[in-house]
């Protein structure tokens, strides 16, 4: 296990985690890509104590669909040290959204990748519908999708009434480097200030030892706009165990990742104390309204 890096700036935030279970209390959606093991809140708290994280953002994972009960209960236990990103459907009421806001939710997630939705026209309609629904609350829309889909949606960004948050490096493939098709559009979107990108889950875009080939992508994203990048562990690293296909039957194991090493990589990518503070403190505080 990697040693924890030197003390972090006060208010450091892990901007992408999930909480699962117990399944008896929080049943999964019947239509789901995988079934996770339990990943309880006490284990997340222990990790964050070790890493020196003062704040966290819990993201609704796809196995729960739009049932946000587990997320909301975790937010209630964590209080003002946490924020949430929920999943909603078309039937949700304004009263329910207001209650979520009071509970600490500050965004909605549109998971296009897990749903297998790569048609830019359909993706654009889904993002716009979500954005219009939550814009009055001052929330953002978060999406997990391919770099190609993001590039095709570049023209939509000026019309979105909310900020867009992009998961996991925009799924740029690390081995293709910064010249790969679509990456320039991601950099331009960042530079515009209308988009945030999460530097999270490098194992989703890299197979290199230590994810070394991710560094040029991360540094290019930070350079494009250090005020619009975020960092997250993706704990407990769900649905991506090497060599295991996603399936709803049985339990899909979590990846075994060194979270202290992941944090050390983030500090290395940032390079300066000022940029570390932006990634871990200032940018999350602005976006999630801490």
TrEMBL record:
Residues 13-289 form the Amidohydrolase-related domain. Keywords: Hydrolase. Coiled coil: none annotated. SUPFAM superfamilies: Metallo-dependent hydrolases (SSF51556). One of its GO terms (molecular function) is hydrolase activity. This is Amidohydrolase family protein. It comes from Ramlibacter pinisoli. The lineage of its organism: Bacteria, Pseudomonadati, Pseudomonadota, Betaproteobacteria, Burkholderiales.
